[in-house]
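User: Structure tokens for both sequences below?

Assistant:
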Amino acid sequence: MIIIFKMKRKRISWFGGDNALNIDTIDFEKMLHTCGYKMTVQRQAILDIIREEKKRHLCTEEIYDEVKKAYPGIGLATVYRTLQLFEKLGIVHHILLDDGCMRFQIMDSKEKHQHHHLVCDICGEVIDVEEDMLGTLEEKLLTEKGFTVKDHKVQFFGICKKCANEQNQ
């Protein structure tokens, strides 16, 4: 079962710009407290999984399965609500790939925008592209259209190196 939620409130920005916070040293408990929330054991466990598995692009159910190993009593609804809260607070953001799942990543303070993704059509591997390849386009949009780009999401679909090598053998 896949549940998709919409964010109705504006996301709070803790990351990016000149005052960027380092995700490795930030006190998430203090961040939650500042916004009127508590850092519960369940929230900490969910946050820990997302941080530890940041390259895996986990969906809600995968996060739930990992957290449930340490906290068998946690409910799937708790994971959904926590991810929704974390996204509202700007701690995580979601990406939608062609697999129909909403996947979550921790926000990275070193990135001006969300990073890009390469998605293999054969094995489904998702590869992060760290560099921002659209800087020139963003400048052109500002100059020619007066449009300031705040963020963007880019995904490239194709065949990864491993699958390409296997096809050529």
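Moving on to the next sequence.
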Amino acid sequence: MARQQSDFPSNGRQGELQVQRAADMPARDAELPDLPTRDTTVRERSLGELFRDLTTETSALVTKEIALVKAEARQTGATLARDGAKIGIASALAFAGALALTAFLVAGLGDLLGGKYWLSALIIGVLFFGIGMGLVKSAASDLKRRGQSVKHTVDTVKDTGTWAKEEARQVKQEITS
């Protein structure tokens, strides 16, 4: 692939350019072609065309916003399913381990309490219940936090619809005024 020649003078080292003083540069006024004036090339668009463009672009914006909501919902759903599966597997393994440890702790604490196994079972049960509730609250707050991104996008779509309706109402008022 051939290298393009730069319009800037080079000093021979790659990536470096020579800087010329503005006074040393040739005048560029002669190089500029006559530009057409605005009146000769720009066509004024009718109000109907502008309104049609507004509705078309608003429709495209709403369609893209809806596609974004769907994509975020799919992504959030997949993440929630993955997190739910992790929680389910972890819970099953933790439950099996907790059963074995509970039996050990009840027996060990019961021996320390002089054979009061009912009291040791109560103490261990309350302890495990408290730990379990803390873990459930943590997982639930994680699920709620992740669900907020879709809500934000839905709110954005609603705002876009409200904006479009207001713009259309204003344009209609200007047309009839």
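User: Anything stand out in the second?

Assistant: The first helix runs from residue 38 to 41.
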